[in-house]
Amino acid sequence: MNSPLLTPYRSTALHLPNRTAMAPMTRARADDTTGVPTPIMTEYYTQRAAAGLIVSEGIWPHPLGKGGPGVPGLTESAHVEGWRRLTRAVHAAGGRIFAQLWHVGRVSHPDLLGGEQPVAPSAVAISHGQIFTAAGPKDYVAPRELSAAETAETVRSHATAARNAIDAGFDGVEINGAYGYLIAQFLSDNANLRTDGYSDRVRFAIEVVEAVAATIGADRTGLRISPGNPLLDIVESDPAPRYHRLLDALDGMGLAYLHVVQSGKYAALEDLRPRWNGTVVATCDSPEPGGREQAERALRAGLADVYAFGRLFLANPDLPQRIASDAPLNPMRTTGMYGGGAEGYVDYPRLSDGAGRGRTGVSPAR
């Protein structure tokens, strides 16, 4: 039986040769001082150009949005030039690539921000865990509450970064509203304690999406959400009504897609798919990488139009080809996950190398 993952997908906004997308994954190979993409990043993304759609690693749209060493930016002309070299190479290899705009909010540290305090909807710190800095892991600090004027500036910075992304040759942008970062902080019960207009927890997300869509076009704008995900000390006690309101506000805009991360107890895909008339990209967040069977079930059930893989694409640059030929999958290695050079980044074997079969001991991509 042919896999639905290999079927072309066409919508008003997207013309994809297959429904196997590469999810955004932080790899921390940009120049840490400037935020400019490095040549090895071009090699990494070009290797994965067979994906129906690539969504880049998170890119900070504002200097206070950086969440780790080696995370790239998209605020200056040097960033645009660096990304332009990368997107040209991906397009030359036949790929399509969206830039993910990723403002981390309180999930940062002064060491990452030139001594500045992280910002957030409210001055509420993450209660446990540490963040990685160039000097090693450090405790989270209490963020500074964004003023109303600063919140408006942050909205505008997303729009400016989106324009930079298009100037850099990206096919569109995905706004990160997931995983406990700034937009998810505004959406949450415990990180957003505001009493002004942003006490309406969906307002900031709507404003960011509207600003980006007005700048580059709704058909080049996607939004990623992870309803009910508790990472980074986020509490959403009753996600459904909140995300219903968010989707109701955005559904008629004609966005390129809604990217739903299924995680936690709330059955987000099943609940939200009927409320969204456009394209849905799905990802399943679980301890083990989401596999082919799970993705095919979601596509066949109509819960998603495109399925995004993270760790499987990290280790298998030619994932669509491996699915097509039932080839074994490379196992993901822990070395080289964040930062460093080629090891664990661009050295995973491909079938075309003649080294991809029979060496992994991992079951085929079924």
Written as H for each helix and E for each strand, in order along the chain, the element string is: EEEHEHEEEEEHEHHEHEHEHEHH
Average pLDDT metric: 95
Approximate shape: globular
Cα(first) to Cα(last) distance is 11 Å
Question: What is the helical fraction, as a range of percent?
Answer: 25-40%
- Uncertain runs: 356-363
How would you characterize this protein structure?
There is one protein chain. Helices cover 28% and strands 16% of the residues. With 366 residues, the protein is of the alpha/beta class. The chain contains ten helices and 14 strands. Helix 3 (148-167) runs parallel beside helix 5 (203-216). It has helices spanning 39-47, 77-92, 148-167, 182-187, 203-216, 239-250, 268-272, 292-300, 311-315, 319-325, and strands at 9-10, 15-16, 20-22, 53-59, 97-101, 119-120, 130-133, 136-139, 144-145, 172-177, 221-225, 257-262, 280-284, 306-309. The longest helix has 20 residues, at 148-167. Mean pLDDT is 95; it is low at 356-363. Helix 6 (239-250) links the parallel strand 11 and strand 12 (257-262). The chain has an eight-stranded parallel beta barrel, surrounded by four helices. A two-stranded antiparallel sheet has the order 1-2. The protein is globular and about 60 Å long.
